Amino acid sequence: MIEAGVAHFQATGKRTLLEIVCRIADHICQVFRSGEFSDAYPGHEEIELALIRLYEATENRSYLDMAKAFVDRRGVEPDYFQRESNHPKWISIFGEQRNAPADLRYHQCHLPVRLQKDAEGHAVRAVYLYCAMADLAREYGDEELQQACEALFQSIAQRRMYLTGAIGSSGILERFTCDYDLPRDRGYGESCASIGLTLFCRCMLRNTCDGKYADVMERALMNTVTAGTALSGEAFFYVNPLKVWPENCLPGTSMEHVKPVRQRWFGCACCPPNIARTLASLGEYAVMSRGDTVWVNLFPSAAFTVSISGVPVQIQCQTQFPFSGEITFSVRAERPVQGSIALRLPDYVSSYSLTVDGAPASIQADRRCSQIKNRVSR
Ligand SMILES: [Zn+2]
What we know:
Layout: H1 2-12, H2 16-33, H3 47-58, H4 61-73, H5 80-85, H6 123-140, H7 143-159, H8 191-208, H9 211-225, H10 271-280, H11 282-286, E1 287-290, E2 293-296, E3 302-308, E4 311-319, E5 327-333, E6 338-344, E7 355-356, E8 359-360, E9 364-366, E10 371-377
Parallel strand pairs: 2-6
Antiparallel strand pairs: 1-2, 3-4, 4-5, 6-10, 7-8, 9-10
Helix pairs in contact: 1-2, 1-3, 2-4, 3-4, 4-6, 6-7, 6-8, 8-9
The protein binds zinc ion.
């Protein structure tokens, strides 16, 4: 609801819903900043992202500080969550975890977040946590937190991710398990988990402008996030294994979670609206601007309005990508401005060329950042 309040404000300029969600966030800060819940933190990470987004919209620093406290409290002894899970009235939403000792790894609280090296536990919760860590690393200039994010990204991208960008390979408990455990027919790969991974990549891109995050972002977006919805927009996949054997998708078996066709809706309907909001905000993933540079991370056929040194600039991208490798950009500024356009060089591209106004142009390819930078002025 907090994210909806921010999105409504940004889309309409109206503060009606924003003011309501600010009161909710104020109440959260009041309850969790001190007193009985001063060491508490969420079981399902998500509020951290909402509070950071609300801070970006309102510049009220108490929301950012609350998000940081939730992240910093995680995995620190004495552990509030462990204490809470021992309470006689505490129940897990998952039957498998009822009457079992608290699985701290599952809840990403087995270590303080700065010491975590592997992506663990419930996949959606994990990547939402990593998004918050990356945003906080940027806002507080926290290099240690940024390094933890890098280690967690490498754990996912190198050892715990399908080639489709799907993550969380276990259908039981929707979780990461161990390195290279990526079964193709009974994998889980929740659509929301790949959306969270896409968000995490965007956060890391904002921090570093390194194209390797865009490579993973594109992989997850094109192969799992968009596969999670039918072209009609009216049917959805919750889980995205590499292989589906329809006769084998039987209730009460290890394949129960796999559906041979997209479903109209779900009892726990997180994925359909998550896909919708991701597609509606695709521009925020495709391009970003920093000072006098525009970074083009993805190549959808679309027009974007960005800022170069404060001047609104429209960039029109025309392409059949990925069915064709040719991409044409038209750039139009409201008034003369000088700046750079940094085009992502995907990791699967081995040869490339650039023309400006029809004439061959030189390219400074920076493989370290997987980006092509070319100075242009209009
Ligand atoms: Zn979901």
